[in-house]
Write a structure and sequence with these properties.
There is one protein chain. This protein is an alpha/beta fold. The protein folds into 2 domains: 25-143, Rossmann fold, CATH 3.40.50; 167-288, Rossmann fold (3-Layer(aba) Sandwich), CATH 3.40.50.1980. It is 41% helix and 14% strand. The chain has 12 helices and 11 strands. Strand 7 (174-180) and strand 8 (184-185) form a beta hairpin. The radius of gyration is 23 Å and the shape is elongated.
């Protein structure tokens, strides 16, 4: 009986420690999620959340990701579990996660919860959101807050450094940023719009339109942006949009067409926002330096 006492004592102490360490975090549904111990098997169904987990030094805990997560390189070998509109419920359950990170737009949340999975719904759309999500994920993972604060300081300092690289001419521009060829744009109230504001650059889409509004192509023509920022995959379609070939921005090639890898940095509200800000700054400096062309 005496030999069994230490193991029983240890088990009791361990259970007490886990219970004492239980934490509560609030997600975007304003629901309080109690996490009794740091999760070791995490599924992420949003690229910015995947990148956040890795930026916090917990990449090794990921056991599944969505089809669009691709950074850092080590996540590319992980099992793919669908996307926001078509998550593979069976694959997610089979991965036996103790935490699933997903966006508010992800389908099947109720079903995942009904199957007993721990859900944390987070979707950053602004700089403040990105900071909050970073801290929330850190708490949920049991990562010290000092680490999430360090990561945020680096992001914030990187955006500020990008702002300092803009030429006076680049700061005078009004731009249109397209995040999807539907088209959807980034307004002043989105994290991209906030980045533009910190760079000292104007945005033709007002905050009142919502963070990422669907935009009438003719509205952009009437606004006459000085520069257009898009993903390279959308470049070929611009000439087919009514009135777009006549816009000065297209006639004079005042266009920032980002590669797929670059676009990921620009449109994801996560740890690489500073890199996205630098890409925007570099392109706007180039565009601002172009000489005006004579009217045909």
């Amino acid at each position: 009986m005496l030999k069994r006492w230490p193991s029983l004592w240890c088990a009791s102490i361990c259970c007490w420690a886990w219970a004492a360490a239980a934490i509560t975090v609030q997600d975007d549904r304003l629901q309080n999620i109690e996490i009794t111990r740091p999760p070791q098997r995490v599924v992420s169904l949003l690229p910015s959340l995947t990148e956040t987990v890795c930026a916090l030094g917990a990449c090794q805990r990921l056991v599944g990701i969505d089809r669009y997560s691709n950074w850092p390189a080590r996540v590319q070998t992980l099992p793919r579990m669908g996307g926001g509109i078509d998550p593979n419920i069976e694959a997610i359950v089979a991965a036996r996660p103790d935490l699933v990170l997903l966006a508010g737009s992800t389908r099947g949340i109720e079903r995942l919860q009904g199957l007993g999975l721990q859900i944390l719904q987070l979707e950053p759309r602004t700089h403040a959101d990105a900071q909050r999500v970073l801290h929330t994920v850190a708490v949920a993972l049991g990562v010290p807050r000092s680490e999430s604060e360090r990561v945020w300081r680096e992001i914030d300092a990187g955006v500020q450094a990008a702002a300092q690289t803009l030429s006076p001419a680049a700061r005078k521009q009004r731009v249109y940023v397209e995040v999807s060829p539907v088209p959807y744009g980034a307004s002043e109230s989105s994290f991209i719009g906030e980045t533009l504001q910190r760079l000292g650059v104007g945005n033709i889409l007002p905050a009142a339109m919502g963070p990422f509004p669907q935009v009438n192509p003719e509205w952009v023509v009437r606004a006459q942006p000085d520069a257009i920022l898009i993903g390279d995959s959308s470049r070929q379609s611009l000439a087919q949009r009514p009135g777009w070939p006549l816009m000065r921005a297209l006639r004079e090639d005042r266009l920032c067409a980002f590669t797929s890898a670059e676009a990921d940095m620009v449109v994801r509200a996560g740890p690489r926002m500073a890199e996205g800000a630098h890409l925007i700054a570099q392109c706007l400096n180039r565009v601002a330096a172009l000489p005006p062309r004579a009217q045909p």
